[in-house]
Amino acid sequence: MAFDGITIAGIAKELNQYLTGGRIYKIAQPESDELLLTIKNNGTQYRLLLSADASLPLIYLTDKNKPSPMTAPGFCMLLRKHLQNARILDITQPGLERIIRIRMEHLNEMGDLCEKTLVIEIMGKHSNIIFCNENNMIIDSIKHISGIVSSVREVLPGREYFIPQTQDKTDPMTLVSEKLNEDYIAVFQEKISSAPMPLYKALYSMYTGLSPVIAQEICFRAGLDGDRPANVLDQDEIRRLYEHFLCLLKQIRAGSFAPNILYERSSKTASDPASALQRTSLQGKTPIEYAAVPLTLYADKEAVPFASISEVLERYYEEKNTFTRIRQKSADIRKIVQTALERNIKKYDLQLKQMQDTEKREKYRIYGELLNTYGYGVEPGAKSMEALNYYTDEMITIPLDDTLTPAENAKKYFDKYGKLKRTFEALSKLTIEVKQEIEHLESIAAALDIAMQEEDLVEIKEELIESGYIRRKGGTKKAKITSRPFHYISSDGFHIYVGKNNFQNDELTFKLASGNDWWFHAKKAPGSHVIVKTEGRELPDRTFEEAARLAAYYSKARAQEKVEIDYLQRKNVKKPNGSKPGFVVYYTNYSMAIDSDISGLEQLS
Fold first, then answer.
1. Taking the CA atoms of the chain, what radius of gyration do you get in angstroms?
2. Which of 160, 204, 212, 564 could be bridged to 523 by S-S, CB 3.0 to 4.6 A?
3. Averaging pLDDT over each range in 62-71, 130-139, 188-197, 231-240, which range is the top one?
4. How many angstroms separate the Cα of 564 from the Cα of each of 325, 413, 556, 595?
């Protein structure tokens, strides 16, 4: 979701609640386009992150500190000169603009009380942090924008600050009133009726602060198709749209926000702000969307509520960045695995087709035998022979080469039989090997899907090197392995370990686990080995189910509604000699079908 005006409104309310009246204790500039302000208020210390990054502009409260450069940049030094120990008077948002103004007072060099304003503009590539005096003149900014760069507005010291009006948009907060205003409805209707574009696009194109997602949400609440052309709506539909739009705006003005992040739905839902346990259970899930208000159009997703919009923003972008970073870091490995997998699948399909062709071999053997038995009665130049198949007691017709004798025809069929038999025997072994290689590569692909940190990729890469898919660079030693299995604790206090890759699967199953510990794995699907340490105790049913859910979640089948899980005591799991990493066999096991919802399970590491 875009960092829209509604999200900014939620942030402004939150910052006012915690920071108004506080004093600026520290000012740091960790990045060229980022500030980190430390503010003390009511005996509590807060950190406020302000980022004007072109690709990801942000503003939120955070507990995390960031290292600063040895020498502070000029903009940082200027702010320290003016704002060190300054008191925050108020934090405002003009209309629903993606702008926050932090107004402060401080003592100048003469001891006089002065006002300054820090303006944070969250506008994509045009984002900026601008420092202004009490007369709205720019003192400096984190990014200097000259007339050469922008013909709309210069952002330079000494220029007057103003909000650029680059589009003909209306502030939607002007619509808010205690009751429906017929004049406003008429203007709204005129705007919508004249828009030859999808309804949701008309909304965010005409009013400031609306993102496409929020525009779709307004249409959904009004029971209208957001993709429907706006200029075909009748008067009742437009009025209904206006009413729901107005309801949302009143909610925003009242400061009634419900920060949440949307994930793929689990069988359990959360109703309270996400606790540490709930956050742990969501680890590994990619967030789909976030909002400062409920998004009812995503009824098929799980909305996890949070106590603050700052927490939503920090978690959402942290998880998104983690997912994106790991995807980028693993891109080369994924390409190698995918290429090898596609090549082996093609080879396997070809081998299966060749195997199918060898099914004729027995027919040729029988033809040869019957020709040797009854061929003496065949007329010279005959093109076929009728004979009794003494294996089935049925008459069959055997095609003949009329230029050959019955004995020569028999030899020809025996030669075909011999060739197909040798092909079958060779392919029987090759198809097993290629099938195992496909399963091995699929297990590596599954390991890449659950990798959350760069160190997780090191072990996967090492496995590919040992398997011959990646060549070890000359002189380089085996990489140091620091990745460790996932570690959970069940509701009944049992320790559960989950392998992140095939090497860890082998280590868990054959080194960490003892004979009476329980072993879990998704049936006929690549995935993690899951070990439950019993410590000599009997496992309750709930622990069996929780371990099975982990095996389902950390498998390729996790998207299925139910996943079949095999489980048995570790002593019954064997590893064949010379088999691939992570490959095991077992012959006696229990099975259960279960979902992949691991919410409620506490992750220790």
1. 35
2. 564
3. 130-139
4. 32, 48, 12, 9
- Tokens at residue 395, please? 């008459």
Query: pLDDT tens for residues 421-450?
Result: 999 999 999 999 999 999 999 999 999 988
Closest-CA residue to 489 (of 432, 521, 427, 535)? 535
Q: Are 156 and 145 in contact (CB under 8 A)?
A: yes
- Of 596, 532, 333, the closest CA to residue 449 belongs to 333
Does position 419 have pLDDT exceeding 60, yes or no? yes
As a whole number, mean pLDDT of residues 326-348 equals: 90
- Which of 594, 487, 581, 481 lies closest to 526, judged by CA? 581
Q: Is the pLDDT of residue 471 over 90?
A: no
Look up residue 42 and give its amino acid. N
Own/partner contacts of 376-380, CB < 8 Å, gap of 24 or more, are 376/406, 378/406
Average pLDDT over residues 280-291: 67
CA nearest 367: which of 414, 325, 415? Answer: 414
Alpha-carbon separation of residue 410 from 416, 419, 424 (angstroms): 10, 14, 21
d(CA 547, CA 3): 39
First-to-final CA distance of the chain: 30
Identity (one letter) of the amino acid at 11? I
Sign of CA dihedral 51, 137, 153, 162: positive
Size of the chain in residues: 605
| Residue 571 in this model has a pLDDT that exceeds 90 | yes
| Backbone angles phi and psi of 61, in degrees to 5 | -85, 140
Q: Give CA 466 to chain center in angstroms.
A: 29
- How far apart are alpha carbons 142 and 130 in whole angstroms? 7
pTM, 2 dp: 0.63
Check: CB of residue 207 under 8 Å from CB of residue 172: yes
Which of residues 478 and 526 earns the better pLDDT score? Answer: 526
Q: Interior CA angle at 174 toward 169 and 177, to 5°?
A: 150
Q: Are 27 and 50 in contact (CB under 8 A)?
A: no
